[in-house]
Amino acid sequence: SDVYKRQDNFYKIKQTMPVASGGLHPGMMPALHKVFGMNVVFQMGGGIHGHPNGTFKGAMAAGQAIDAVLKGVSLRDYAKKHPELKSAIAKWGIIKKPFVGKPEAKGFKY
């Protein structure tokens, strides 16, 4: 789905660019892409700065994850030739299904 399309004709408010932020890392890109589509800003502060090999490599891993999604390649396969992405996946894993809804409804315990 494309969140951007859902904003059409919403009380005459101009369209905006949705932003996904907070706890994002490269391993979330496939799931986030399914939710938001193409027209979105992903802010991966900790997912870039928290990379095991530093900020620069974290930024590379983020870009590699986005490239993999846009090319239709799994993150694991793409990581075979991209060590920055491989390190990010080793640290944070890959999220296969986006979390939507209240945590309590999914059996999540604080």
Q: What's the structural blueprint in terms of helices and strands?
A:
Elements: E1 19-21, H1 29-36, E2 41-43, H2 45-49, H3 55-71, H4 75-79, H5 83-92
Parallel strand pairs: 1-2
Helix pairs in contact: 3-5
Structural class: mainly alpha
Q: Spans of 5+ residues with little confidence (pLDDT < 50)? A: none
Please indicate the percent range of residues in DSSP E strands (runs of 2 or more).
Answer: 5-15%
Q: What is the tally of helical segments? A: 5
Distance between the termini: 29 Å
Write up what this structure looks like.
The chain has helices at residues 29-36, 45-49, 55-71, 75-79, 83-92; strands at 19-21, 41-43. Helix 3 (55-71) crosses helix 5. The mean pLDDT is 84. It contains 5 helices and 2 strands, in the order E-H-E-H-H-H-H. A two-stranded parallel sheet has the order 1-2. Helix content is 41%, strand content 5%. By secondary structure, it is mostly helical.
Which short descriptors sum up this protein?
110 residues, mainly alpha, two-stranded parallel sheet, 5 helices, 2 strands, globular
Brief synopsis:
With 110 residues, this protein is mainly α.
